[in-house]
């Protein structure tokens, strides 16, 4: 992706989130220089990979295959392993109309995926084989706003604003905006996007960035290089 495209997506996403009453925390608006200047006091932001996250999964067709995310908070794996402390994470996502977030599951993370506003949130679900791999014939059971719901292999569930689904690590899923763009909330256990995504197809989680202009704000995938 070009940096100019990333900057434009950030501005559009910020306006979309604000239209539903969601304001981002102050560090979201730091310039790269401000992020560098504050990196010592913002260790939790940097180490927890809080912030802007825009991906086309390395495929170069963001409008068809992509996702906007902003990680608001993220706990510590050591706390999760100890069973006490900050064991949770929270994100805001924007899934554009017919923009696919591809089929994947998580090794560790359980998550509530919540339609926070906009269009319908569509999620295609599939169960796992005994080894955790994708099983095209496997269905399963999820919780939808506390109500148990069985699904068949490949079934698409639709969620209006205010509705949600709880996904466990074995639940394969892909999602998109149905009939328009949708603002999505994610509340989960500790999140690690470097190690906790198992995609059905061999694709990447993060995008390579072509630096055609200066960044407005850093992506979480920029932290390692830009904040050395």
3D architecture notes:
It is a single chain. The protein has 228 residues and is an alpha+beta fold. The chain has helices at residues 3-18, 32-37, 43-47, 77-82, 223-226, and strands at residues 51-55, 67-74, 88-95, 101-105, 111-126, 140-144, 147-151, 156-159, 164-167, 172-189, 198-199. It has one domain (3-226): Jelly Rolls (Sandwich). The strands form two sheets. Strands 1, 2, 3, 4, 5, 8, 9, 10 and 11 form a nine-stranded antiparallel sheet that branches. The chain has a two-stranded antiparallel ribbon with strand order 6-7. The mean pLDDT is 97.
Report the average pLDDT across residues: 97
Number of structurally distinct domains: 1
Count of alpha/pi helices: 5
Which CATH class is shown?
Mainly Beta
How do the helices and strands follow one another from N- to C-terminus? HHHEEHEEEEEEEEEH
- Helix/strand/pairing category: alpha+beta
Proper CATH architecture: Sandwich
Indicate the overall shape. globular
Report the CATH superfamily.
Answer: Jelly Rolls
- Poorly predicted regions: none
How much strand? 35-45%
Give the arrangement of secondary structure elements.
Layout: H1 3-18, H2 32-37, H3 43-47, E1 51-55, E2 67-74, H4 77-82, E3 88-95, E4 101-105, E5 111-126, E6 140-144, E7 147-151, E8 156-159, E9 164-167, E10 172-189, E11 198-199, H5 223-226
InterPro entries: D-lyxose_isomer, EcSI_cupin
Protein name: D-lyxose/D-mannose family sugar isomerase
Pfam family, one: Lyx_isomer
List key phrases describing it.
11 strands; D-lyxose_isomer; Jelly Rolls; 5 helices; alpha+beta; EcSI_cupin; nine-stranded antiparallel sheet; single chain; metal ion binding; 228 residues
């Amino acid at each position: 992706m070009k940096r100019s495209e990333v900057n434009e997506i950030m501005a559009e996403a910020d306006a979309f989130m604000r239209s539903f009453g969601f304001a981002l925390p102050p560090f979201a608006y730091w310039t790269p220089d401000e992020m560098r200047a504050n990196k010592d006091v913002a260790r939790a932001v940097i180490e927890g990979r809080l912030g802007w996250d825009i991906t086309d999964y390395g495929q170069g067709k963001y409008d068809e295959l992509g996702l906007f995310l902003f990680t608001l908070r993220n706990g510590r794996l050591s706390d999760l392993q100890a069973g006490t402390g900050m064991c949770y994470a929270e994100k805001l996502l924007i899934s554009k109309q017919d923009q696919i977030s591809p089929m994947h599951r998580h090794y560790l993370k359980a998550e509530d995926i919540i339609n926070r506003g906009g269009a319908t949130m569509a999620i295609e679900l599939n169960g796992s084989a005994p080894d955790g791999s994708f099983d095209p014939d496997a269905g399963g059971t999820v919780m939808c706003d506390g109500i148990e719901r069985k699904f068949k292999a490949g079934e698409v569930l639709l969620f209006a604003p205010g509705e949600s689904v709880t996904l466990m690590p074995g639940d394969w899923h892909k999602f998109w905006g149905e009939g328009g763009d949708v603002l999505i909330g994610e509340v989960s256990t500790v999140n690690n996007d470097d190690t906790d995504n198992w995609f059905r197809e061999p694709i990447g989680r993060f995008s390579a960035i072509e630096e055609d202009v200066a960044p407005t704000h850093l992506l979480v995938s920029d932290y390692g290089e830009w904040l050395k």
